[in-house]
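User: Run a structure prediction on this.
Assistant: Running it now.
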Amino acid sequence: MIDRRTLLTGLAAAPVAACATLPAPGRPPQLSLVCFNIWHDRGDWPARLPLLIAAIRAEAPDIIGLQEVLEDAAVGLPNQARTIADALGGYSVHFVSTDPEGAPRRYGNAVLSRLPVAAVDPRRLEPLDDYRTAIRVRVTVGDRPVDVVNTHLAAAQDAVPVRARQVADLVAHLPRDNVPLVVMGDFNALQDEAGLAPLTGSRFFSALPPGAAETTLNPAMGHQPRVIDHIFVEAARFTPVRAAVIGSTPVADTYPSDHFGVAATVRLR
């Protein structure tokens, strides 16, 4: 087990490099990704924060998708995505919330990028009364554009029709300009749920294939083991390199979150 003092000392190490590793000459570039539901400020946030940072830093990802991101002026909590990005170093932060700009409390999703960002497109998903969002960033990988979407769908297990509507709304509003696409997030659904079909059919593959992990929900927090956090990647545009569940080991009985993260590396075709 890692001693917490050792871990905190390690957090002061040099930040992640500001640009992705260049591919070998003639080799297509790779894209590394992390998807993590950070459980807003529940539990012992000051103790969890360094564990989240350490788990993400170990992957040195190009793009990070965070769900359940909170900023709350009333309790002196800065935007959690900004806090994580500042600790890692070299990442731009793109945040989406159904709470209006300037509100003292805002809750939503974020994408952190150490790659150049050409466009950002936040969206509130139908049905609007479920208060769910998605955010798309267009980044440059090597010299090629890639769209990365981060989202968080309806939570109730009986909300299958709601999640289906949210996925349909998300897909309907994606650009149709032939740019390679990655969609990741906390879908609150197994891969075989019918409503996820637009993201699990022949167009996409899961970076974390079925059966590769027992759960992305943390059983230590009372969750039933289920893989509901996914990174879906266009099959015609990418080949898988590696994938793993991260943040699944406690430090002094503390976990980074009530979810585990998903890390993946893919290569552009």
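The helical segments are 4-10, 45-57, 80-88, 160-172, 197-200.
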